[in-house]
Amino acid sequence: MRFEFYQDGLLDVPKLSVDGTVDNSIHFSHWQGNKTPADVKADTSTEIALNVVDSPDREMLTQGITLVTNNHFDTDGVLSVWTMLTGDPALEYRDLLIAAAEAGDFSEFSSETAVKISLAIQGSDSPEPGEPTGSPLANRLEGHAVTDNAREYELVLHEIPRLLADVGPYELLWRHPWERIERALASFARGDSTVFEDLNGDVSVVVLAPSVFSPSGFKPTRHSAPFTAISHHAHGRFFVIATPAEGGWIYRLDYPYYSWAETVVRPRISRSDLTGALARLNELEGEASGQWKLDESEMTSAAKFMGIDGGPASSRLTPDAVGTLIRSELTGTGA
Q: What is the mean pLDDT of residues 11-37?
């Protein structure tokens, strides 16, 4: 097996499309629209690759093709490619590989080590302004910021065995984002941050304490949601995420962080028409400093309360009121 990052010259070349989906290829991917063989499907592409490697029908599944490709760089992509290239020895790390892929693609916290591995490979899921971009691991190996995905793969793939064996030596790569995750998890553990879910699990109303973001509190223009801590505690089909701020509440509405992928174990999440719900929320706001607007700027974001500058603004509605209205709209029960 050999890997080449996808480029147009590979269009007509038979290949194994791992994680991403490209034409004229056999898919081993969880991206929407994939044609992955049913008997190896799984929630992450890394688990799919592990299923292929472990299958008695591996040769039939790969049809003798030895070229592996992907069209983007992230934790799940790197680990699924590495698994295909490595073969049977990758199976020793099966649980850790899957957990790290889930941390990267779904912001899930299966284990501390898995989260740290993902942070080292692809960086934080909620970076702060000014943090270096790209793969922290690739940047360290190259000695400067790497902006080319193909080069990131060249650097990182060789380092994966050492990273899986011991994440400790890579502490400088994961320490700061891990501290933010720890702070958010501790806030939920203390009850400072809370999640309310109805019995049907339709909507999770998440109220975040300002201390989740930093000791000095929440700054709307600087801080994004702590996705890993939220996904660890919220299990609904829709998230209402509120943070207290001067004059009211900062809101974002999200689907679960796995919902963008084609999943097998995790439930499929249907995207809803929120037009009516947002119109009702704006009516309740009255004369406000902003508006509830649809927002698809992130893979799982649905809507936000935004100011006239397009940034976050303070809503006067309480989390309970927003959660009740959203729940009634999504379930058709009426407010």
A: 96
Residue type, 40: V
Of 220, 324, 325, 245, the closest CA to residue 278 belongs to: 325
**CA angle, residues 152, 156, 162, in degrees to nearest 5:** 170
Neighbour-count burial of 249, counting CB atoms closer than 10 A to its CB (0-12 exposed, 13-18 middle, 19+ buried): buried
Residues whose CB is less than 8 angstroms from the CB of residue 285 and which lie 6 or more positions away in sequence, other chains included:
291, 292, 315, 316, 317
Q: Return the closest-CA partner of residue 278 out of 315, 233, 237.
A: 315
User: What tens digit of pLDDT does each residue of 131-156 get?
Assistant: 778 999 999 999 999 999 999 999 99
Quick one: CA dihedral 256, 259, 264, 268, positive or negative? positive
CA 294 to chain centre: 20
Which strands sit side by side in the sheet containing 290-294, from one edge to the other? 194-197, 204-207, 239-245, 248-254, 301-307, 290-294
List, in sequence order, every beta strand (DSSP E) within 161-263.
194-197, 204-207, 239-245, 248-254
Report the percentage of the chain scoring pLDDT > 70.
96
pLDDT tens column, 217-237: 556 555 678 999 999 999 999
**DSSP 3-state assignment of 226?**
coil
Query: Residue 69: enclosing H or E segment and its boundaries?
Result: strand 67-69
DSSP string, 267-324: PP-PPP--HHHHHHHHHHH-S-SEEEEE--SSTTEEEEEEETTSSB--B-S-HHHHHH
| Cβ(141)–Cβ(159) below 8 Å | yes
226: its two tokens: 């702590």
Q: How confident is the model at residue 103 (pLDDT cuts 50, 70, 90)?
A: very high
Q: Which residue has the tokens 């989260």?
A: 115
DSSP structural state of residue 223: -
